[in-house]
Amino acid sequence: MQLNYWPIFINNFIVVKWNIYQSFPIQLAFFDDQIVVFHHGSGETHLLDKNASLILSTIMESEVPICEPALLGMAIEAGLGSVDSQTLAGVLGALQNLQIIEKI
User: Which domain holds residue 30?
Assistant: First the structure.
């Protein structure tokens, strides 16, 4: 049996990648350390805090889906020293529940 691809594994776990939700467009407005997001699918507007704003900006600026370890490293480099993997998972989960980002 021959595989055409190899999944990426880190510490025996498959790496989850994140991307902007593709089913509905979103519009952004930037205010200092916060982002206001308008979701065209739901018609809702969301005000994101500094952590969520930076993480969403990082995902949007990435040309390809981005994995959690890379997101965590970029968040720390950008000055969010209080962000750890648990905090990142919480922000990603909240953004996913709002259908702003999705797992790939």
Answer: 17-103
What's the pTM?
Answer: 0.80
Mean pLDDT, the chain, integer: 83
- The answer to whether position 44 is within a domain reads yes
Tokens linked to 40: 């065209």
Q: Is residue 6 part of a domain?
A: no
Q: With residue 36 as reference, give the H or E element that holds it.
A: strand 34-39
Distance CA 78, CA 93 (A): 21
Beta strands in 57-96 (DSSP E): 66-67
10 domain residue, yes or no: no
Longest dimension (CA), the chain: 54
User: Which two three-digit tokens encode residue 31?
Assistant: 């205010």
Residue 102's DSSP bridge partners are 19
Total domains present in the chain: 1
